[in-house]
Amino acid sequence: MKIDLVPFDLRYADAIADIEKDSFSDPWSKEAFISSVTSPFTDITVALFYEGSVPTVCGYSVTVSLPPECEILNIAVARDQRRKGIAELLIQDIAERASKNGCDTLMLEVRISNLAARALYEKLGFEAVGIRKAYYRYPIEDAILMDKRL
Ligand SMILES: CC(C)(COP(=O)(O)OP(=O)(O)OC[C@H]1O[C@@H](n2cnc3c(N)ncnc32)[C@H](O)[C@@H]1OP(=O)(O)O)[C@@H](O)C(=O)NCCC(=O)NCCS
Questions:
Q1: Which of 49, 86, 144, 150 sits 20 to 30 Å CA-CA off 122?
Q2: Is residue 31 annotated as part of the catalytic site, yes or no?
Q3: CATH number at residue 37
Q4: pTM, full prediction
Q5: Residue 136, domain member (yes or no)
Q6: Catalytic residue among 69, 109, 135, 141
Q7: How many domains does the chain have?
Q8: Ligand 1 centre distance from Cα of residue 16 (Å)
Q9: What distance in Å separates the CA atoms of residue 139 and residue 51, rounded to the nearest whole number?
């Protein structure tokens, strides 16, 4: 399956919000995605696959880049497209762009109970560097702070 990574566009906002709702217990709203791209430091990258010539959104990432650090604020893949390497592709792309922008570290927070995401980050070389107590709501849960040197 060929995946294209493209910058955020308003026409993808509904599909992103649907994946987000299905992926998180405390999802971002569609408006939160739209307003986040108004910041010059924030990027949303959208993963698309094609059925014929029609693009379907299958994942996305949101990053904020403030050299020397780039933070992954959000990443998700449509439930029916998981375990096909799409998140790995998104993170490789983030790492390449962050490096070009002068960043030397990628960082993120992840729920302690999110074993799939933790396995993903560990596979890609992220290391746990701290705990943020009660960082998340709905349900309240600690975050593991992870980073990766580029
Ligand atoms: C976490 C998530 C983004 C992974 O997306 P994905 O496209 O399925 O991940 P990939 O196919 O690129 O997986 C890469 C590696 O991550 C690990 N991984 C991914 N999902 C996993 C799972 N359910 N269980 C165990 N390991 C997993 C594996 O090491 C995998 O490599 P492998 O398939 O060769 O074993 C996806 O499960 C998701 O959208 N979850 C809901 C949203 C979320 O939790 N986002 C992260 C917030 S911090």
A1: 49
A2: no
A3: 3.40.630.30
A4: 0.97
A5: no
A6: 109
A7: 1
A8: 17
A9: 37
